[in-house]
Amino acid sequence: MTTIELSLLLVKNSAEMSVWSIFLFLIHSLHGHQSCPRRCDCPPGNGVVWCNWRNLMVIPFDIPHDTHVLYLDSNWIVHISSGAFHGLKLLHELHLADNLIESISPAAFHGLGNALRLLDLSGNKLQKIDAAPFVMLTWVKLELYNNPWHCDCSLQELMKALSLGARKAEDIVCATATWKEYVGKTLSHLVSTGVNFCVTQQKNTDFAMLLTMFVWFGVVITYVIYYIRRNQAESRRHLEYLKSLPVPNSSLLGPETLP
């Protein structure tokens, strides 16, 4: 092989290696992009994903499946949609504190594994939440403080369904409540003093039903009285009209009409 041919072969091999290197680099870059959300940081090897303080309005869909700790706190998230964390079987901690979360879909936490131990929802805008999103997370430590809770029967039933202890119930302060005197007090204090929001709600429902029935009965009676009086007035007008008719003159009557 001549020197020229050898040089051409080396150049060709170098070009192929360069193309292959560029291809591997692109694949690696694409894989890295897919494995970490665009606005987040995913340091390699430790399973922690940092998405806090990123002005996020929705939860990223491309969170790595090997994530152990996920920080989504201090963003602008308002709602947690169904399956938002699907596939994160290894997740131990989920931090959603200091967002604007007002509602949580019943299937929001479907797809999470049994590894989850902490769910931080503190410092949000939660007033009411349904038990459905949490029925499969009864072993998880919930952080629920600093939310504008509305204390009523549904919240009391939720606390019972989640089997929250007295310490957790102390974190729930009534920003609003069924009765004004309960505002500013903790749910645990109210329940410990014998307050039962479900009984109160039932009494309110019974009173509202009784009041509705009373109003309806009053409307019916009023209509009946009005109908009777209107008929009486019509009867009087008809009688007066008959009385106002002229009486026939007997002298104008024929002999055949005389008795």
TrEMBL record:
Specify the protein's topology with respect to the membrane.
Answer: Single-pass membrane protein
The highest taxon in the source lineage is: Eukaryota
Which first-to-last residue range defines the signal peptide?
1-32
Query: What InterPro entries has UniProt attached to this entry?
Result: Leu-rich_rpt, Leu-rich_rpt_typical-subtyp, LRR_dom_sf, LRR_TM_domain-containing
| GO CC annotation terms, alphabetical | plasma membrane
Which locations, inside or outside the cell, does it occupy?
Membrane
Name the Pfam families for this protein.
LRR_8
Q: Which UniProt keywords apply?
A: Leucine-rich repeat, Membrane, Repeat, Signal, Transmembrane, Transmembrane helix
Q: Where are the transmembrane segments?
A: 207-228
Q: Name the principal localization, coarsely classed.
A: membrane
What name does the UniProt record give this protein? LRRNT domain-containing protein
